[in-house]
Structures are given as structure tokens and as C-alpha cells.
Amino acid sequence: MSVDPRQIQVGMGVVGIDGDEVGTVKEVRATEILVDRRFARDVYVPVEAIQAIVDASASHAVDPHVVLTIRADSVGDMGWRHPG
Fold first, then answer.
1. How is domain 5-77 classified at the CATH fold level?
2. Which residue, 20, 45, 48, 62, is most buried by CB atoms nearer than 10 A?
């Protein structure tokens, strides 16, 4: 299933497939999102690595967020590029 990056908003949370927090969306591009990570360098995550976008309209109990296809603790091992 492919996701539409136009559904992603700056400020949305980003979590791994395991539900653990990765960070928040800082910037949205056509093929990637920039994720602000609290205790690590920001990282560009390719759209292909996004499993789902959980919208507030889907469930009022959850904040809108992006779910990746990998575990949160694996983000730093993917070799994705960093800003600057």
C-alpha cells in the first residue's frame, strides 16, 4: 500500500512499526519527510518507508501520526540522509 505524502502534515508524530516514538514531521516533500528526532540528528525518511498515516478522523482517541515500516530503533541504521 502506498501512502500519499499530501496527507502528512508538519507537526505530526512519527512512530515505528513497534509503536515507539521516532520524532515529529518537520518538513514534507514529494518523496520524503524530514523527521525531527529529539536526541538524534534529523533524518529524511523516504515515503516508501511509511506504512500508514493515521488520521484524526479515523479515530478520535489517537493523535494523527505516521507509522513507518521499520522499528523506531532501526531508523538510525537505515543510512538515510540528514539535512545540511
1. SH3 type barrels. (2.30.30)
2. 45
